[in-house]
Amino acid sequence: MSYKKNDTVKLTITDLGTSGEGIGRVDGYTLFVKDALIGDEIEAMIIKAKKNYGYGRLMKILKASPARIEAKCPVARQCGGCQIQQMNYEAQLDFKRSLVGGNLERIGGFTGDSKLEVLPVIGMESEFNYRNKAQYPVGLNKEGKIVMGFYAGRTHSIIDNQDCLIGAKENVYILQKVKEWMEENAISAYDETKHKGLVRHVLIRTGFTTGQIMVCLVINGNGLKAEQADKLNEKLLSIDFSKLKTSAASRFNDLESEELKKDLKAKGDGVARITSIMLNLNKKDTNVILGEECKTLYGSSYIEDFIADIKFQISPLSFFQVNPIQTKKLYSKALEFAGLTGGEVVWDMYCGIGTISLFLAKKAKEVYGVEIVPQAIEDAKNNAKINAITNSNFMVGKAEEVVPEIYGKDGDASAKHPDVVVVDPPRKGCDEALLNTLVLMAPKRIVYVSCDSATLSRDLKFLCEKGFKVEKVQPVDMFPHTVHVENVVLLTRVN
Ligand code: SAH
After folding, report:
1. Are residues 263 and 342 in the same domain?
2. Which residue's CA lies nearest to atom 3 of ligand 1?
3. CA angle in degrees (0–180, nearest 5) for 215-424-447
4. Which residue among 82, 182, 236, 439 has its CA within the 20 to 30 Å range from the CA of 486?
5. Same domain flag for 253 and 396
6. For residue 230, how far is its CA from the centre of ligand 1 (angstroms)?
7. Could you tell me whether strands 212-219 and 273-281 are parallel, antiparallel, or unpaired per DSSP bridges?
8. Is 79 an annotated catalytic residue?
9. Which of 79, 216, 451, 464 is catalytic?
10. 340 shares a domain with 206
11. Predicted structure pTM score
12. Range of the domain at 192
C-alpha cells in the first residue's frame, strides 16, 4: 500500500532512527515521524511521500509510550539542539545502548558466537546544564526587535530564547545584559540576508571547575568604539553571580590535589565570574560562526579549566570537550582500559589539544600524540608545559601519513612498538592506512574512543580480522537529550 501527501494515518512507533525520529509501519509502508517515540501510538499526517516510505508530522498522540515525558524545555520541539528530550533519561540511555549494539551486529558482523556485550551507558547524575560552550545567533525579528537564541529547525530564522537548558546556567543573565547593551547603545544586530549589522553571535565559554567565564561577541566589523566597549564591560561585570544560579565552579571540589585547590582559591578560582571579554572578527558572508582574529576587551584572552587535575587554557577558537563532567568519566575509562603501570609507551592518535595524551602521560613512560590541526598541536604543547608534563611528544599531520612514515623509518623501536595505542578519530573513523600500521605496530592493547558507533563497528571488524579481540564496549553519554553517544572500546592483541 502506498500513501500520498496530506494523508492521515494511525501507527505505532517501533524504532528510532539515527536522528531520533520515530519509525513505524502501516501496511508495509514505512513512516519517519519526528518527535515520536518507540511505543507511541500516534496519528500522523504525511508531509512527504515516496513509493515505499514517507515522512509524517506528529499530529496526535493516541497512546503515549511509557518512556514519554513532558520535555523540560518549552521550545524543545522547535529547536534543533535536542532531539529526544521528550524521552525519560533512563530510556534515552537504553536507546543509546541498543543503537551501539545494533551497529556492532549489522556493520561489525559481531553476531551469534561473536556477539559483543555492550555495557550499560554511563549517564549523568543531572542531565541538564552540562555544556560549557554555547554560541547564540543574534538577529532581528519581523518587528525589528533584537532576538538571540537558536535557529528554528533547519532554517536560519532565530527563535528568541536565552535560557537553553543544556547550556550553563549563567548564560541567560549574560545574554540579557548583552541585549540591554545593544538596545541602550543602538548597536545593530547582524542581518544575514543583507550581510549588514554588527553583532552576529554571542559565544560563552565556562570553566566548570575554575568558575572563569569568557564572553565573546562575534562581530561583522573591526572592533567597537572605546566608549561602546567600556559600556559593554561595565554591563557584563555588573552581574553578581553569587546571587544567581550557577553552573561554573560547581566541580571545584572534584579536584584531587588539596594543594592545587588552595593555590587556585588564592587567585579567585572556585567561584563563577567573568574573567574574559573578547571580540571575534568575522566579516565574511558565510555560515561559519567564527572568524580568525580575536581582540581582548577585558581580562585574559583565554579561560582556564581542568579535567581531573590537568589544566587547559581555552581561547575562543580552541577545541575543548563541551561536557567536562562526562569527559572525565570517559577518559578515566580510557585510562583504566589502557592498563598503565608507569613503564608503557603510548600513542594517542587524533589527539586534538592533547587531552587524552596528558591524562595518560601521568601514568606512562612516554606518550606520542598526532593531530592534523597545527593550532591544536600548539595548544597541546602549551598544555603539557603549564602542567609540567615532560614525557609527551606531539606531531602535526594526518595520522594515516605520519604514523606509517615513522614506522617505516629507522628509529626508536619502543616508539614503533608501543604497549598501548589510543585512537579518537572524527566521525568518519580511522583511515585504513593507519589501521594497517597499527596491526604492524602490534600493541598489546588498543583503546578506541569513538563518537560514531557505525564507523567504530567497521573499524573493529577490520582489527578483529587482523589479530585483535574486543574485550569491552563502554558507551558514555556525553550529550544527553541528543542522539549522540560516545564509546570507549578495549581491544587486546591475541597473536
Ligand atoms: N582526542 C581529542 C580530540 C578528538 S576529536 C580530545 O579528546 O579532545 C578528533 C580529532 O582528530 C580532531 O582534533 C581533528 O582535528 C583530528 N583529525 C581529523 N582528521 C585527522 C587525521 N587524518 N589525522 C590526525 N588527526 C585528525
Report:
1. no
2. 352
3. 135
4. 439
5. no
6. 39
7. parallel
8. no
9. 451
10. no
11. 0.93
12. 133-314
